[in-house]
Amino acid sequence: xxxxxxxxxxxxxxxxxxxxxxxxxxxxxxxxxxxxxxxxxxxxxxxxxxxxxxxxxxxxxxxxxxxxxxxxxxxxxxxxxxxxxxxxxxxxxxxxxxxxxxxxxxxxxxxxxxxxxxxxxxxxxxxxxxxxxxxxxxxxxxxxxxxxxxxxxxxxxxxxxxxxxxxxxxxxxxxxxxxxxxxxxxxxxxxxxxxxxxxxxxxxxxxxxxxxxxxxxxxxxxxxxxxxxxxxxxxxxxxxxxxxxxxxxxxxxxxxxxxxxxxxxxxxxxxxxxxxxxxxxxxxxxxxxxxxxxxxxxxxxxxxxxxxxxxxxxxxxxxxxxxxxxxxxxxxxxxxxxxxxxxxxxxxxxxxxxxxxxxxxxxxxxxxxxxxxxxxxxxxxxxxxxxxxxxxxxxxxxxxxxxxxxxxxxxxxxxxxxxxxxxxxxxxxxxxxxxxxxxxxxxxxxxxxxxxxxxxxxxxxxxxxxxxxxxxxxxxxxxxxxxxxxxxxxxxxxxxxxxxxxxxxxxxxxxxxxxxxxxxxxxxxxxxxxxxxxxxxxxxxxxxxxxxxxxxxxxxxxxxxxxxxxxxxxxxxxxxxxxxxxxxxxxxxxxx
Length: 592
Known about the structure:
single chain, CBS-domain, 3 domains
Protein backbone atom coordinates (compact mmCIF):
# COMPACT_ATOMS: atom_id res chain seq x y z
CA UNK A 1 0.00 0.00 0.00
CA UNK A 2 1.30 3.47 -0.92
CA UNK A 3 1.58 5.96 1.95
CA UNK A 4 -0.08 9.23 0.91
CA UNK A 5 -0.24 10.81 4.38
CA UNK A 6 2.36 13.37 3.30
CA UNK A 7 -0.29 14.90 1.00
CA UNK A 8 -2.49 15.87 3.96
CA UNK A 9 -1.76 19.27 5.51
CA UNK A 10 -0.07 19.11 8.89
CA UNK A 11 -2.63 19.32 11.69
CA UNK A 12 -0.47 21.32 14.03
CA UNK A 13 0.36 24.27 11.79
CA UNK A 14 -2.47 26.50 13.16
CA UNK A 15 -1.24 25.82 16.68
CA UNK A 16 2.33 26.64 15.68
CA UNK A 17 1.24 29.82 13.91
CA UNK A 18 -0.75 30.91 16.97
CA UNK A 19 2.24 30.21 19.19
CA UNK A 20 4.52 32.24 16.93
CA UNK A 21 2.06 35.17 16.99
CA UNK A 22 1.91 35.02 20.78
CA UNK A 23 5.69 35.20 21.04
CA UNK A 24 5.84 38.10 18.60
CA UNK A 25 3.17 40.05 20.48
CA UNK A 26 5.00 39.65 23.76
CA UNK A 27 8.31 40.89 22.39
CA UNK A 28 7.42 43.43 19.68
CA UNK A 29 5.26 46.55 19.88
CA UNK A 30 4.94 46.54 16.09
CA UNK A 31 2.92 43.33 16.20
CA UNK A 32 0.61 44.84 18.81
CA UNK A 33 0.00 47.76 16.44
CA UNK A 34 -0.84 45.34 13.63
CA UNK A 35 -3.28 43.54 15.92
CA UNK A 36 -4.81 46.92 16.80
CA UNK A 37 -5.37 47.60 13.11
CA UNK A 38 -7.36 44.36 12.84
CA UNK A 39 -9.31 45.23 15.98
CA UNK A 40 -10.06 48.70 14.60
CA UNK A 41 -11.43 47.23 11.38
CA UNK A 42 -13.67 44.86 13.37
CA UNK A 43 -14.86 47.72 15.60
CA UNK A 44 -15.75 49.83 12.56
CA UNK A 45 -17.73 47.00 10.99
CA UNK A 46 -19.60 46.29 14.22
CA UNK A 47 -20.44 49.97 14.74
CA UNK A 48 -21.88 50.34 11.24
CA UNK A 49 -23.85 47.10 11.57
CA UNK A 50 -25.41 48.14 14.87
CA UNK A 51 -26.22 51.62 13.61
CA UNK A 52 -27.97 50.28 10.51
CA UNK A 53 -29.88 47.66 12.46
CA UNK A 54 -31.16 50.17 15.04
CA UNK A 55 -32.17 52.65 12.33
CA UNK A 56 -33.92 49.88 10.39
CA UNK A 57 -35.95 49.05 13.50
CA UNK A 58 -36.93 52.70 13.98
CA UNK A 59 -37.79 53.05 10.28
CA UNK A 60 -40.07 50.00 10.40
CA UNK A 61 -41.77 50.95 13.66
CA UNK A 62 -42.18 54.70 13.15
CA UNK A 63 -42.31 54.96 9.33
CA UNK A 64 -39.33 57.30 8.93
CA UNK A 65 -37.07 57.53 5.88
CA UNK A 66 -33.62 56.06 5.47
CA UNK A 67 -31.94 59.42 6.06
CA UNK A 68 -34.42 60.76 8.64
CA UNK A 69 -34.01 60.71 12.41
CA UNK A 70 -36.66 59.67 14.90
CA UNK A 71 -36.18 62.64 17.21
CA UNK A 72 -36.80 65.07 14.32
CA UNK A 73 -40.27 63.85 13.26
CA UNK A 74 -43.15 66.31 13.51
CA UNK A 75 -45.36 64.21 15.78
CA UNK A 76 -45.84 60.73 17.25
CA UNK A 77 -49.33 59.26 17.15
CA UNK A 78 -50.69 57.50 20.26
CA UNK A 79 -50.67 54.17 18.38
CA UNK A 80 -47.01 54.43 17.43
CA UNK A 81 -46.13 55.67 20.93
CA UNK A 82 -47.19 52.25 22.20
CA UNK A 83 -44.14 50.75 20.51
CA UNK A 84 -42.11 52.08 23.44
CA UNK A 85 -44.12 49.94 25.84
CA UNK A 86 -43.82 46.95 23.49
CA UNK A 87 -40.07 47.45 23.36
CA UNK A 88 -39.95 47.72 27.12
CA UNK A 89 -41.80 44.44 27.47
CA UNK A 90 -39.47 42.75 24.97
CA UNK A 91 -36.46 44.08 26.88
CA UNK A 92 -37.92 42.98 30.22
CA UNK A 93 -38.56 39.44 28.96
CA UNK A 94 -35.09 39.19 27.43
CA UNK A 95 -33.43 40.46 30.62
CA UNK A 96 -35.52 38.07 32.73
CA UNK A 97 -34.45 35.13 30.54
CA UNK A 98 -30.80 36.18 30.88
CA UNK A 99 -30.98 36.49 34.65
CA UNK A 100 -32.49 33.03 34.98
CA UNK A 101 -29.30 31.58 33.51
CA UNK A 102 -26.73 33.68 35.38
CA UNK A 103 -26.22 35.14 38.83
CA UNK A 104 -23.45 37.67 38.12
CA UNK A 105 -23.81 41.14 36.67
CA UNK A 106 -22.74 42.19 33.19
CA UNK A 107 -19.28 43.70 32.88
CA UNK A 108 -18.77 46.73 30.63
CA UNK A 109 -15.51 47.98 29.12
CA UNK A 110 -14.73 50.47 31.88
CA UNK A 111 -15.20 47.88 34.62
CA UNK A 112 -13.25 45.29 32.63
CA UNK A 113 -10.25 47.58 32.27
CA UNK A 114 -10.40 48.81 35.86
CA UNK A 115 -10.86 45.48 37.63
CA UNK A 116 -10.25 42.58 35.26
CA UNK A 117 -7.19 43.53 33.26
CA UNK A 118 -9.25 44.09 30.12
CA UNK A 119 -10.80 40.62 30.09
CA UNK A 120 -14.30 41.06 28.68
CA UNK A 121 -16.79 38.27 28.14
CA UNK A 122 -18.11 37.95 24.58
CA UNK A 123 -21.39 36.61 25.99
CA UNK A 124 -21.74 39.58 28.38
CA UNK A 125 -21.02 41.96 25.52
CA UNK A 126 -23.55 40.32 23.21
CA UNK A 127 -26.22 40.64 25.92
CA UNK A 128 -25.38 44.32 26.47
CA UNK A 129 -25.51 45.00 22.73
CA UNK A 130 -28.87 43.24 22.32
CA UNK A 131 -30.34 45.14 25.29
CA UNK A 132 -29.08 48.44 23.88
CA UNK A 133 -30.36 47.66 20.37
CA UNK A 134 -33.82 46.84 21.73
CA UNK A 135 -33.86 50.01 23.82
CA UNK A 136 -32.68 52.38 21.08
CA UNK A 137 -34.43 50.55 18.24
CA UNK A 138 -37.83 50.97 19.93
CA UNK A 139 -37.09 54.65 20.57
CA UNK A 140 -36.08 54.90 24.26
CA UNK A 141 -34.08 57.97 25.19
CA UNK A 142 -30.67 56.27 25.13
CA UNK A 143 -27.81 56.17 22.66
CA UNK A 144 -26.01 53.31 20.96
CA UNK A 145 -22.56 54.40 22.10
CA UNK A 146 -22.55 51.87 24.96
CA UNK A 147 -23.16 49.07 22.44
CA UNK A 148 -20.51 50.43 20.06
CA UNK A 149 -17.86 50.56 22.78
CA UNK A 150 -18.90 47.19 24.21
CA UNK A 151 -18.69 45.46 20.84
CA UNK A 152 -15.35 47.02 19.96
CA UNK A 153 -13.91 46.20 23.37
CA UNK A 154 -15.20 42.63 23.20
CA UNK A 155 -13.61 42.07 19.78
CA UNK A 156 -10.31 43.33 21.19
CA UNK A 157 -10.57 41.24 24.35
CA UNK A 158 -11.39 38.11 22.34
CA UNK A 159 -8.38 38.59 20.07
CA UNK A 160 -6.09 39.45 22.98
CA UNK A 161 -7.29 36.45 24.96
CA UNK A 162 -6.68 34.01 22.13
CA UNK A 163 -3.20 35.43 21.66
CA UNK A 164 -2.51 35.64 25.42
CA UNK A 165 -1.22 39.20 25.38
CA UNK A 166 0.15 40.80 28.53
CA UNK A 167 -2.22 42.39 31.02
CA UNK A 168 -1.16 45.92 30.08
CA UNK A 169 -1.40 45.17 26.37
CA UNK A 170 -4.86 43.68 26.88
CA UNK A 171 -6.07 46.86 28.56
CA UNK A 172 -4.62 48.98 25.75
CA UNK A 173 -6.17 46.71 23.14
CA UNK A 174 -9.63 46.88 24.77
CA UNK A 175 -9.35 50.66 25.01
CA UNK A 176 -8.34 50.80 21.36
CA UNK A 177 -11.32 48.65 20.34
CA UNK A 178 -13.83 50.72 22.30
CA UNK A 179 -12.33 54.02 21.11
CA UNK A 180 -12.23 52.80 17.53
CA UNK A 181 -15.94 52.03 17.65
CA UNK A 182 -16.73 55.53 18.95
CA UNK A 183 -14.43 57.05 16.33
CA UNK A 184 -16.25 55.12 13.58
CA UNK A 185 -19.64 56.22 14.91
CA UNK A 186 -18.71 59.92 14.72
CA UNK A 187 -16.26 59.71 11.82
CA UNK A 188 -13.74 61.29 14.20
CA UNK A 189 -10.52 59.33 14.87
CA UNK A 190 -9.10 61.82 17.38
CA UNK A 191 -12.33 61.73 19.37
CA UNK A 192 -12.19 57.95 19.41
CA UNK A 193 -8.54 57.90 20.43
CA UNK A 194 -9.04 60.22 23.37
CA UNK A 195 -12.21 58.38 24.36
CA UNK A 196 -9.97 55.33 24.67
CA UNK A 197 -7.36 57.18 26.73
CA UNK A 198 -9.65 59.15 29.04
CA UNK A 199 -12.68 56.89 29.45
CA UNK A 200 -11.57 53.28 28.90
CA UNK A 201 -7.83 53.09 29.66
CA UNK A 202 -7.88 55.81 32.29
CA UNK A 203 -4.53 57.42 31.42
CA UNK A 204 -2.37 58.69 28.58
CA UNK A 205 0.47 56.23 28.18
CA UNK A 206 3.29 56.43 25.60
CA UNK A 207 3.03 52.71 24.95
CA UNK A 208 -0.67 53.04 24.06
CA UNK A 209 -0.50 55.94 21.61
CA UNK A 210 0.41 54.00 18.46
CA UNK A 211 -1.99 51.04 18.98
CA UNK A 212 -4.94 53.29 19.84
CA UNK A 213 -4.27 55.70 16.98
CA UNK A 214 -3.89 52.82 14.50
CA UNK A 215 -7.17 51.24 15.62
CA UNK A 216 -9.14 54.50 15.46
CA UNK A 217 -7.85 55.51 12.03
CA UNK A 218 -8.56 52.03 10.68
CA UNK A 219 -12.09 51.97 12.11
CA UNK A 220 -13.02 55.32 10.55
CA UNK A 221 -11.63 54.30 7.15
CA UNK A 222 -13.41 50.94 7.36
CA UNK A 223 -16.74 52.56 8.23
CA UNK A 224 -16.42 55.00 5.31
CA UNK A 225 -15.39 52.22 2.93
CA UNK A 226 -18.58 50.23 3.57
CA UNK A 227 -20.83 53.27 3.36
CA UNK A 228 -21.35 53.91 7.04
CA UNK A 229 -23.04 57.20 7.91
CA UNK A 230 -21.37 58.66 10.99
CA UNK A 231 -23.09 60.96 13.47
CA UNK A 232 -22.67 64.28 11.68
CA UNK A 233 -22.91 67.27 13.99
CA UNK A 234 -23.59 69.89 11.35
CA UNK A 235 -23.10 73.05 13.39
CA UNK A 236 -21.01 75.77 11.82
CA UNK A 237 -18.93 77.74 14.29
CA UNK A 238 -19.19 81.53 14.08
CA UNK A 239 -16.39 83.95 14.93
CA UNK A 240 -13.84 82.76 17.49
CA UNK A 241 -14.46 84.05 21.03
CA UNK A 242 -12.35 86.78 22.60
CA UNK A 243 -11.18 87.05 26.23
CA UNK A 244 -14.61 88.09 27.51
CA UNK A 245 -16.17 85.26 25.53
CA UNK A 246 -13.88 82.77 27.25
CA UNK A 247 -15.00 84.12 30.63
CA UNK A 248 -18.65 83.75 29.66
CA UNK A 249 -18.10 80.22 28.38
CA UNK A 250 -16.43 79.38 31.69
CA UNK A 251 -19.75 80.22 33.33
CA UNK A 252 -21.44 77.81 30.93
CA UNK A 253 -18.96 75.15 32.05
CA UNK A 254 -19.97 75.70 35.68
CA UNK A 255 -23.69 75.51 34.88
CA UNK A 256 -23.09 72.35 32.84
CA UNK A 257 -21.31 70.72 35.79
CA UNK A 258 -24.20 71.44 38.15
CA UNK A 259 -26.76 70.26 35.61
CA UNK A 260 -24.78 67.08 34.87
CA UNK A 261 -24.46 66.15 38.54
CA UNK A 262 -28.18 66.76 39.07
CA UNK A 263 -29.05 64.54 36.09
CA UNK A 264 -26.81 61.70 37.28
CA UNK A 265 -28.25 61.86 40.77
CA UNK A 266 -31.78 61.84 39.36
CA UNK A 267 -31.00 58.70 37.36
CA UNK A 268 -29.68 57.02 40.51
CA UNK A 269 -32.71 58.13 42.50
CA UNK A 270 -35.10 56.85 39.83
CA UNK A 271 -33.34 53.46 39.77
CA UNK A 272 -33.61 53.15 43.56
CA UNK A 273 -37.29 54.13 43.62
CA UNK A 274 -38.14 51.69 40.84
CA UNK A 275 -36.23 48.86 42.55
CA UNK A 276 -38.09 49.48 45.80
CA UNK A 277 -41.47 49.67 44.09
CA UNK A 278 -43.80 46.64 43.91
CA UNK A 279 -43.61 46.66 40.09
CA UNK A 280 -42.37 43.22 38.89
CA UNK A 281 -38.91 43.48 37.37
CA UNK A 282 -39.95 41.98 34.06
CA UNK A 283 -42.55 44.69 33.34
CA UNK A 284 -40.61 47.70 34.63
CA UNK A 285 -39.28 48.68 31.19
CA UNK A 286 -42.81 48.37 29.77
CA UNK A 287 -44.12 50.81 32.41
CA UNK A 288 -41.23 53.10 31.57
CA UNK A 289 -42.16 52.75 27.90
CA UNK A 290 -45.68 53.96 28.62
CA UNK A 291 -44.26 57.03 30.37
CA UNK A 292 -41.89 57.63 27.47
CA UNK A 293 -44.78 57.32 25.04
CA UNK A 294 -46.58 60.13 26.86
CA UNK A 295 -43.49 62.34 26.68
CA UNK A 296 -43.01 61.49 22.99
CA UNK A 297 -46.55 62.65 22.15
CA UNK A 298 -45.73 65.98 23.80
CA UNK A 299 -42.41 66.24 21.93
CA UNK A 300 -40.83 63.58 19.68
CA UNK A 301 -37.46 65.17 20.49
CA UNK A 302 -37.45 63.03 23.64
CA UNK A 303 -37.00 59.88 21.54
CA UNK A 304 -33.76 58.05 20.78
CA UNK A 305 -30.42 59.81 21.36
CA UNK A 306 -31.54 63.15 19.90
CA UNK A 307 -29.36 63.41 16.80
CA UNK A 308 -32.04 64.81 14.52
CA UNK A 309 -33.46 67.11 17.18
CA UNK A 310 -30.04 68.67 17.79
CA UNK A 311 -29.86 69.96 14.22
CA UNK A 312 -33.54 70.80 14.01
CA UNK A 313 -33.52 73.12 17.03
CA UNK A 314 -30.54 75.09 15.77
CA UNK A 315 -31.94 75.37 12.25
CA UNK A 316 -35.34 76.62 13.46
CA UNK A 317 -33.94 79.02 16.07
CA UNK A 318 -36.34 78.19 18.88
CA UNK A 319 -37.13 80.74 21.64
CA UNK A 320 -35.75 80.28 25.14
CA UNK A 321 -39.03 79.05 26.62
CA UNK A 322 -39.38 76.23 24.09
CA UNK A 323 -35.72 75.28 24.46
CA UNK A 324 -36.21 75.04 28.23
CA UNK A 325 -39.28 72.84 27.77
CA UNK A 326 -37.41 70.50 25.43
CA UNK A 327 -34.48 70.41 27.89
CA UNK A 328 -36.83 69.43 30.70
CA UNK A 329 -38.66 66.82 28.61
CA UNK A 330 -35.48 65.24 27.23
CA UNK A 331 -33.91 65.10 30.70
CA UNK A 332 -37.07 63.47 32.05
CA UNK A 333 -37.05 60.95 29.20
CA UNK A 334 -33.42 60.01 29.90
CA UNK A 335 -34.13 59.59 33.62
CA UNK A 336 -37.22 57.47 32.92
CA UNK A 337 -35.42 55.33 30.32
CA UNK A 338 -32.48 54.46 32.55
CA UNK A 339 -34.47 54.39 35.77
CA UNK A 340 -36.96 51.84 34.44
CA UNK A 341 -34.31 49.53 33.00
CA UNK A 342 -33.71 50.50 29.40
CA UNK A 343 -30.09 49.90 28.41
CA UNK A 344 -27.84 52.46 26.77
CA UNK A 345 -25.67 55.46 27.39
CA UNK A 346 -25.96 59.20 27.75
CA UNK A 347 -23.13 60.08 25.36
CA UNK A 348 -25.13 61.62 22.52
CA UNK A 349 -28.03 62.52 24.79
CA UNK A 350 -25.60 64.64 26.82
CA UNK A 351 -24.43 66.33 23.60
CA UNK A 352 -28.03 67.16 22.71
CA UNK A 353 -28.85 68.40 26.20
CA UNK A 354 -25.64 70.42 26.22
CA UNK A 355 -26.56 72.11 22.95
CA UNK A 356 -29.93 73.08 24.43
CA UNK A 357 -28.27 74.36 27.59
CA UNK A 358 -25.80 76.40 25.53
CA UNK A 359 -28.53 77.99 23.43
CA UNK A 360 -30.54 78.87 26.55
CA UNK A 361 -27.41 80.37 28.12
CA UNK A 362 -26.73 82.50 25.04
CA UNK A 363 -30.38 83.59 24.91
CA UNK A 364 -30.38 84.63 28.57
CA UNK A 365 -27.19 86.65 28.08
CA UNK A 366 -28.90 88.47 25.19
CA UNK A 367 -31.49 89.72 27.68
CA UNK A 368 -28.84 91.26 29.93
CA UNK A 369 -27.16 94.66 29.44
CA UNK A 370 -23.84 92.94 28.63
CA UNK A 371 -22.31 94.22 25.42
CA UNK A 372 -20.64 90.87 24.73
CA UNK A 373 -23.03 88.47 23.04
CA UNK A 374 -22.65 84.75 22.36
CA UNK A 375 -23.85 83.23 19.10
CA UNK A 376 -26.29 80.31 19.56
CA UNK A 377 -24.10 78.08 17.35
CA UNK A 378 -20.94 78.61 19.36
CA UNK A 379 -22.79 78.36 22.67
CA UNK A 380 -24.40 75.10 21.52
CA UNK A 381 -21.00 73.63 20.63
CA UNK A 382 -19.41 74.68 23.92
CA UNK A 383 -22.45 73.49 25.88
CA UNK A 384 -22.28 70.14 24.09
CA UNK A 385 -18.69 69.59 25.14
CA UNK A 386 -19.07 70.89 28.68
CA UNK A 387 -22.16 68.87 29.59
CA UNK A 388 -20.82 65.73 27.91
CA UNK A 389 -17.66 66.06 30.00
CA UNK A 390 -19.72 66.55 33.16
CA UNK A 391 -21.68 63.35 32.49
CA UNK A 392 -19.41 61.10 30.43
CA UNK A 393 -15.99 62.53 31.26
CA UNK A 394 -13.07 63.15 28.91
CA UNK A 395 -12.32 66.89 28.44
CA UNK A 396 -10.00 66.28 25.48
CA UNK A 397 -12.40 63.75 23.96
CA UNK A 398 -15.20 66.29 23.74
CA UNK A 399 -12.92 69.15 22.73
CA UNK A 400 -11.55 67.12 19.83
CA UNK A 401 -15.12 66.20 18.87
CA UNK A 402 -15.91 69.90 18.53
CA UNK A 403 -12.64 70.49 16.66
CA UNK A 404 -13.22 67.64 14.22
CA UNK A 405 -16.81 68.77 13.74
CA UNK A 406 -16.11 72.44 13.06
CA UNK A 407 -12.41 72.73 12.25
CA UNK A 408 -12.41 75.91 14.38
CA UNK A 409 -9.59 76.00 16.90
CA UNK A 410 -11.01 79.03 18.71
CA UNK A 411 -14.32 77.36 19.53
CA UNK A 412 -12.51 74.13 20.35
CA UNK A 413 -10.31 76.04 22.81
CA UNK A 414 -13.38 77.64 24.40
CA UNK A 415 -14.92 74.18 24.67
CA UNK A 416 -11.78 72.88 26.35
CA UNK A 417 -11.85 75.75 28.87
CA UNK A 418 -15.51 75.13 29.73
CA UNK A 419 -14.93 71.36 29.77
CA UNK A 420 -12.02 71.63 32.20
CA UNK A 421 -14.12 73.75 34.56
CA UNK A 422 -17.00 71.28 34.32
CA UNK A 423 -14.65 68.34 34.88
CA UNK A 424 -13.01 69.97 37.90
CA UNK A 425 -16.30 70.87 39.56
CA UNK A 426 -17.75 67.41 38.99
CA UNK A 427 -14.61 65.72 40.26
CA UNK A 428 -14.42 67.89 43.37
CA UNK A 429 -18.12 67.88 44.26
CA UNK A 430 -19.26 64.53 42.91
CA UNK A 431 -16.27 62.40 41.96
CA UNK A 432 -17.83 60.17 39.31
CA UNK A 433 -18.70 60.03 35.64
CA UNK A 434 -21.99 58.45 34.65
CA UNK A 435 -20.49 54.99 34.07
CA UNK A 436 -18.51 54.96 37.31
CA UNK A 437 -21.45 56.45 39.25
CA UNK A 438 -23.62 53.50 38.28
CA UNK A 439 -20.84 51.12 39.30
CA UNK A 440 -20.61 52.99 42.61
CA UNK A 441 -24.33 52.41 43.15
CA UNK A 442 -23.63 48.68 42.71
CA UNK A 443 -20.98 48.82 45.43
CA UNK A 444 -17.82 49.20 43.32
CA UNK A 445 -15.32 51.86 44.42
CA UNK A 446 -14.26 52.82 40.88
CA UNK A 447 -13.73 56.45 39.91
CA UNK A 448 -12.08 55.83 36.53
CA UNK A 449 -10.83 53.03 34.31
CA UNK A 450 -7.39 53.24 35.95
CA UNK A 451 -6.10 49.72 36.57
CA UNK A 452 -6.84 48.75 40.16
CA UNK A 453 -7.49 45.13 39.36
CA UNK A 454 -3.91 44.15 40.15
CA UNK A 455 -4.36 45.59 43.63
CA UNK A 456 -7.47 43.52 44.22
CA UNK A 457 -5.79 40.42 42.83
CA UNK A 458 -2.79 40.84 45.11
CA UNK A 459 -4.42 39.65 48.32
CA UNK A 460 -3.17 38.48 51.69
CA UNK A 461 -4.05 34.91 50.73
CA UNK A 462 -1.76 35.09 47.69
CA UNK A 463 1.13 36.79 49.47
CA UNK A 464 1.16 34.86 52.78
CA UNK A 465 3.65 32.19 53.83
CA UNK A 466 1.47 29.07 54.12
CA UNK A 467 3.56 27.13 56.69
CA UNK A 468 3.87 29.26 59.86
CA UNK A 469 5.10 27.84 63.15
CA UNK A 470 2.22 27.07 65.52
CA UNK A 471 1.86 25.80 69.08
CA UNK A 472 -1.00 25.12 71.47
CA UNK A 473 -1.94 28.16 73.56
CA UNK A 474 -1.96 25.96 76.72
CA UNK A 475 1.72 25.05 76.29
CA UNK A 476 3.94 25.92 79.28
CA UNK A 477 6.65 28.54 78.77
CA UNK A 478 9.31 26.01 79.76
CA UNK A 479 8.18 23.55 77.08
CA UNK A 480 7.98 26.36 74.56
CA UNK A 481 11.61 27.32 75.26
CA UNK A 482 12.73 23.78 74.61
CA UNK A 483 10.80 23.52 71.34
CA UNK A 484 11.66 27.00 70.01
CA UNK A 485 15.11 28.10 71.25
CA UNK A 486 16.25 31.66 70.56
CA UNK A 487 17.20 32.12 66.93
CA UNK A 488 14.98 29.32 65.63
CA UNK A 489 12.05 31.59 64.69
CA UNK A 490 10.99 35.13 65.46
CA UNK A 491 7.34 34.44 66.34
CA UNK A 492 4.90 31.57 66.74
CA UNK A 493 1.12 31.47 66.26
CA UNK A 494 -0.90 30.20 69.22
CA UNK A 495 -3.88 27.90 68.69
CA UNK A 496 -6.69 26.76 70.98
CA UNK A 497 -7.90 23.18 71.39
CA UNK A 498 -9.90 23.43 68.15
CA UNK A 499 -6.86 24.69 66.19
CA UNK A 500 -8.30 28.22 65.99
CA UNK A 501 -6.22 31.36 66.20
CA UNK A 502 -5.65 32.72 69.72
CA UNK A 503 -2.80 35.15 69.27
CA UNK A 504 0.87 35.43 68.43
CA UNK A 505 3.92 35.06 70.63
CA UNK A 506 7.29 36.70 70.03
CA UNK A 507 9.95 34.10 70.78
CA UNK A 508 12.07 36.67 72.61
CA UNK A 509 9.17 37.40 75.00
CA UNK A 510 9.20 33.79 76.19
CA UNK A 511 12.88 34.18 77.20
CA UNK A 512 12.47 37.53 78.94
CA UNK A 513 13.49 37.87 82.57
CA UNK A 514 10.73 37.44 85.14
CA UNK A 515 8.57 35.17 82.96
CA UNK A 516 7.17 32.22 84.95
CA UNK A 517 8.35 28.98 83.24
CA UNK A 518 5.15 27.22 84.36
CA UNK A 519 2.80 29.87 82.91
CA UNK A 520 0.86 29.17 79.75
CA UNK A 521 2.19 30.93 76.64
CA UNK A 522 -1.26 32.40 76.03
CA UNK A 523 -0.54 34.90 78.82
CA UNK A 524 2.23 36.38 76.65
CA UNK A 525 0.19 36.53 73.45
CA UNK A 526 -0.05 39.67 71.30
CA UNK A 527 -2.31 40.58 68.33
CA UNK A 528 -5.15 38.54 69.82
CA UNK A 529 -7.86 40.37 67.91
CA UNK A 530 -5.77 41.45 64.92
CA UNK A 531 -5.72 39.16 61.89
CA UNK A 532 -6.00 39.35 58.11
CA UNK A 533 -8.63 37.85 55.85
CA UNK A 534 -7.26 36.03 52.79
CA UNK A 535 -9.32 38.36 50.55
CA UNK A 536 -7.82 41.57 51.96
CA UNK A 537 -6.06 43.43 49.12
CA UNK A 538 -2.52 44.77 49.39
CA UNK A 539 -3.47 48.40 50.02
CA UNK A 540 -5.76 47.44 52.90
CA UNK A 541 -3.05 45.13 54.27
CA UNK A 542 -0.51 47.97 54.26
CA UNK A 543 -2.93 50.25 56.12
CA UNK A 544 -3.53 47.56 58.76
CA UNK A 545 0.21 47.13 59.28
CA UNK A 546 0.66 50.90 59.51
CA UNK A 547 -2.06 51.43 62.11
CA UNK A 548 -1.29 48.33 64.19
CA UNK A 549 2.48 48.84 64.40
CA UNK A 550 3.16 45.10 64.17
CA UNK A 551 5.59 43.40 61.78
CA UNK A 552 3.71 40.19 61.01
CA UNK A 553 0.08 39.13 61.08
CA UNK A 554 -1.73 35.82 60.78
CA UNK A 555 -4.08 35.16 57.87
CA UNK A 556 -7.19 33.32 59.01
CA UNK A 557 -10.43 32.13 57.41
CA UNK A 558 -14.01 32.80 58.53
CA UNK A 559 -13.74 30.09 61.21
CA UNK A 560 -10.52 31.59 62.57
CA UNK A 561 -8.44 28.69 61.28
CA UNK A 562 -4.89 29.78 60.45
CA UNK A 563 -4.01 29.82 56.75
CA UNK A 564 -0.61 31.48 56.87
CA UNK A 565 1.59 34.34 58.03
CA UNK A 566 2.29 37.64 56.28
CA UNK A 567 5.19 40.01 57.00
CA UNK A 568 5.04 43.77 56.49
CA UNK A 569 8.51 43.86 54.91
CA UNK A 570 7.49 41.38 52.23
CA UNK A 571 4.25 43.30 51.50
CA UNK A 572 6.19 46.56 51.06
CA UNK A 573 8.68 44.91 48.67
CA UNK A 574 5.89 43.31 46.65
CA UNK A 575 3.97 46.56 46.39
CA UNK A 576 7.07 48.46 45.24
CA UNK A 577 7.82 45.74 42.70
CA UNK A 578 4.30 45.87 41.27
CA UNK A 579 4.37 49.67 41.04
CA UNK A 580 7.67 49.53 39.19
CA UNK A 581 6.26 46.97 36.78
CA UNK A 582 3.24 49.18 36.16
CA UNK A 583 5.49 52.14 35.37
CA UNK A 584 7.61 50.09 32.97
CA UNK A 585 4.49 48.94 31.14
CA UNK A 586 3.18 52.49 30.87
CA UNK A 587 6.35 53.59 29.07
CA UNK A 588 6.60 50.41 27.03
CA UNK A 589 9.85 49.24 28.63
CA UNK A 590 8.72 45.89 30.00
CA UNK A 591 8.96 43.80 26.81
CA UNK A 592 11.50 41.04 26.76
